Amino acid sequence: MSKRGKSDRARPAKVRDVFVPRPFAGLVDEAQWIALRELVPAATAPLTLAAELRERYGERPVTLATVLPMAWPAMTKPDGRIFIGLQRHVQSGDVSRDLAVALLCALDTEPGQTVAVPALPGPGPRLRDVLDDRTLDVTLHDGFDFWLDPDASDDPNVKASLERANASIYPTVALAAAPAAYWCRVPDKAHVRWVLPDEEDRAMDALARLGAGGGLLLGEGTKFAGMFRAHGLLVPVWDLPRGPEAEEWEVPLAEFTKRYGEALAVESSLTAAERRSRQGLLGRQLTLR
User: Fold this and answer.
1) CA-to-CA distance for 11 and 139, rounded, in angstroms?
2) pTM higher than 0.85, yes or no?
3) Burial environment of residue 179 by CB neighbours within 10 A (0 to 12, 13 to 18, 19 or more)
4) Is residue 76 within 8 Å of 60, Cβ to Cβ?
5) pLDDT at position 214, please?
6) Model confidence pLDDT, tens digit, residues 105-143
7) Which pLDDT band holds residue 11 (cuts at 50, 70, 90)?
8) Alpha helix (H) ranges present in the chain?
9) Of 65, 61, 18, 63, nearest to 37 (Cα)?
10) Cα(175)–Cα(30) distance, integer angstroms
11) Distance between CA 287 and CA 101 in Å, rounded?
């Protein structure tokens, strides 16, 4: 056999990456998964393994976290607990597949040891295959201290990462007026951001109707800043005065959700004014992958 033939046989197969534009589609709480990945700095939610995995691995406690130390995809604790990180540095084109692989790798890792996760996992199980899919019970945190065990001698690198991460957090509050809606305060203003649960074109048409009728604002002193597309869903963003606290925006957002629902229910084609409004909204739209 030629040297070239031996070299070709030894070369590992290339993993093909496939981009999935709406990776959380089909999950009960799709919009909340997106909010935790794109809007919320520090939060956790318990996850339940699918029945098949519970039979194989037992009742391992699994926690979804917005971000883990040094943006790890997963970590295991000495007592067997597993954390899965949503916001990470390395990812493929299918976020759902990435998270499923991180969970499976963590389950196969000895408790307390570093979890090795492939950057490009290739085809295989996704979140719906490895989880008992339920509404997420989200807990927001003021910092990332949930990373550390009080009685454990934790890695100094993790503690340094914790300090940097805590310093970057802006105050964030979940709003009760709409699922997956969050208020945050940044240095010069505040924002409300809401992950709309509806299919993109329908959501855009509803916003266009509201824009044409002057119904996009949350009240005096507010500005509809635009929107971004995150994992296949739209996320409108409002600029707000910095002073008022989060609870003061519950009623304005509730009133907006009512207007939005009414606009979403309209089945007729957009009017000329609404089409112009739609074009203006498209011009202020960004895409987050």
Assistant:
1) 46
2) yes
3) middle
4) no
5) 96
6) 999 999 999 999 998 998 999 999 999 999 999 999 999
7) low
8) 3-10, 30-38, 51-57, 95-107, 127-130, 156-167, 200-212, 250-265, 272-282
9) 65
10) 17
11) 25
